[in-house]
Fold:
Amino acid sequence: MTSRRRVVVVGAGITGLTAAFTLATNRPDTDVVVVEASERVGGKILTTPFAGRPVDCGADAFLARVPEALELCRELGLQTILTSPAQKSAYVWVNGGLHHLPSGLVLGVPTDLDALAASGIVSDDGLARASQDLTRTEWIDSANGVDPDGADDQSVGDLIRTRLGDEVHEKLVSPLLSGVNAGDADYLSLAAGAAQIAVAARTSPSLITALRAQSTAAQINPETPVFHGIPVGTQTLTDLMLARLTQADVPVHLSCPVASITRGEKTWTLSTPLGPITAEEIILATPAHPTARLLETIAPEPARDLASLEYASAAMVTLAISKKSLGVPLDASGFLVAQTDPLPTLTACSWASAKWAHLDDPEVAILRVSAGKHGDTHALDLDDAALVAALSIDLETTMGINAPPLASRVTRWIDALPQYRPGHPARVASWRSGVAAEAPGIHIAGAAYDGLGLPACIRQGRQAAAAIA
Ligand SMILES: Cc1cc2nc3c(=O)[nH]c(=O)nc-3n(C[C@H](O)[C@H](O)[C@H](O)COP(=O)(O)OP(=O)(O)OC[C@H]3O[C@@H](n4cnc5c(N)ncnc54)[C@H](O)[C@@H]3O)c2cc1C
Structure:
């Protein structure tokens, strides 16, 4: 008779729930237990009612052109209700106004220079500088050569400024990529934060030529949506996984923070408010800092470096605005803010009720406004009323909104968004090998490591489950 193994999954965000759900589905030889510090599952995924509709407080979309999130939706029976943005274009606040982003952008990098010229976003000099890329035959940066592991990683800013000039970086690439993790694309790992550009940059001295070739080779139907959303809220994903775990008799202990992990002869013991829990293997699907604390004594080497991973905090402020008070038509999914034209408080604004048909209303517009970024917490330091007032000033500047919001909701995401610095993939590899060597049977997964978007977290949850002995 084979003995049953117990696996404890620590952290019930999308990563931990996917790992537990995968084990519960595929491994009848394993007893799975989930322990979660907070009183709810979902972690950074949260949907609550706002203006009579389920409006996400965090993630509201996932990449549709990679398989992981779609496959999970299929497994949970959600595929028939998936939707995609009603508006495909977006604006950028630049040169003192809202400008349509040109077509042909790949992660902010323009591949259609006529469309870039027509957008009025970059100056003639900026356009001429970007155009030099097209005729370049000599490598002018360190991206040449084959480096699949990103060992000679550089920042997104370094590459784009060198190849296409400062204007393209500051007005297009930086607003698109800095927003993803409330960071600064000048310090963002190219390999970890913009892998598609990293691959293109290695294949040709002309980045635009390489990205065009990538698009042609990928044969992506332009009608295929880039993103999907879940009309009843992204939290449905994590709620459904909780329901499936409950059906499978997998205990999910909420309000149950793990305080420490100690080494036994053949098992690990987790100290929790419920008492000690022993397990043969553990999946730590927690953010880097709590993970580092739990590894402090059992894998001190990787824990020390993991503890130094930087995070950004951000606020997501949801506003209901009377459509009569809008100064611009809501004919796009929202707007980003160029590095050249920072606003006092607002960092991006999603026109949620234009982006998602299910949030539309004849009288009221719903906006999801972001504030706060790495190294700048002044917005987070304001109380809710002061934050809404500060954002209202920026919305008057950008969108001409001339009346206070009908309703508001402030969600603060503290230390929520990991900052991948150049060299991140190599650091992750050393954390993983260090944990495997010092604490065998413990696995690390989640937004701190191999991508912070939902598909990347789901993939890591699957991989952690697959790594269980
Ligand atoms: C405002 C915002 C908007 C976003 N928008 C998008 C988007 O549109 N699309 C997209 O793809 N991604 C988006 N993301 C990113 C994505 O939501 C996150 O990266 C992802 O949800 C993180 O999942 P995770 O499971 O790795 O971690 P988390 O969700 O952080 O889960 C970790 C869990 O561990 C628990 N925990 C911590 N310490 C302990 C302990 N000691 N014991 C037990 N439990 C513990 C925590 O309470 C938490 O529940 C967004 C993120 C934010 C903040």
